[in-house]
Amino acid sequence: MLHQLKLNKTLATVLFLGLTITPVYAHTVKVAEDVGGTLHIEPNDNPKAGESSETWIALTRRGGKIVPLKDCNCQIEVYPKPRVNGSTPLLKPALKPISTSQYQGIPGADIVFPKAGNYEIQISGTPKANANFKPFKLTFPVTVAAGKTVVTTAPSPKVVNSPNQNNQQNTQQSAQNNTINSEKNQRINPAIPLIITGVSLAGIGVLGAVLQNKK
Q1: Is pLDDT above 50 for 19?
Q2: Predicted confidence (pLDDT) per residue in 113-132, tens digit
Q3: Residue span of the structural domain in which 84 resides
Q4: Which of 9, 84, 112, 125 qualifies as a cystine partner to 72, CB 3.0-4.6 A?
Q5: Residues in a beta bridge with 60
Q6: Where do the segments described as Disordered lie (predicted)?
Q7: Is there a single domain that holds both residue 119 and residue 170?
């Protein structure tokens, strides 16, 4: 009877450990103060660069009570690794309540990791007026696989002339204008002597007629 009791106790312990370890193995779990957090990223905790990944953190207090987003002044930040102390976050996605089969209204966000590599997701929070838990900060390591390559077409560079180039262009334009005006003048000038000659002959004819009349 005693042997049977020990066996049942051992089986119960193994069953309990199996139930508790399985979620930990499937997701990353962190604890700070009296709040624990479980991170999950779609799809299957395998985010890809350039693709939107729905991310959620199941926050629970000691005893297993869920901390929903409506009870938490939470914010989420994404940092590249290795992370430098005092560095600004690479991303600060907006949080939204997410409901799953196990959790309702937990903090979540849509995150687009810019490239493959290692990152840290940090969620921090303080309790709202109707909540009772200590301020916390949880950091989760994330590995992002290669995904879409976003190809961007660079705009054609705008050519901006330097002042010297502008002066040269203005000088060339002025020279061209002077050449055109000179050619026009050359085409017009040969007619001017003919006009002057005609006027002179007409004047001589008039003068001769006047003198003839006087005789």
Answers
A1: no
A2: 999 999 999 999 999 998 89
A3: 24-144
A4: 125
A5: 36, 66
A6: 154-178
A7: no
CA 51 to chain centre: 14
Structural domain total, the chain? 2
Query: Is there a single domain that holds both residue 77 and residue 29?
Result: yes
- Per-position DSSP letters for 32-70, written without gaps between them: ETTEEEEEEETTTT--BTTSEEEEEEEEEETTS-B--GG
List the alpha helices (DSSP H) in 27-161: none
Identify whether the C-beta of residue 125 lies closer than 8 Å to the C-beta of residue 97.
Answer: no
Radius of gyration in angstroms for the set of CA atoms belonging to the chain, rounded to a whole number:
45
Q: What is the DSSP letter of 150?
A: -
93 burial type by CB count under 10 A (0-12 exposed, 13-18 middle, 19+ buried): middle
* pLDDT at position 214 over 90: no
pLDDT reported for residue 101: 86
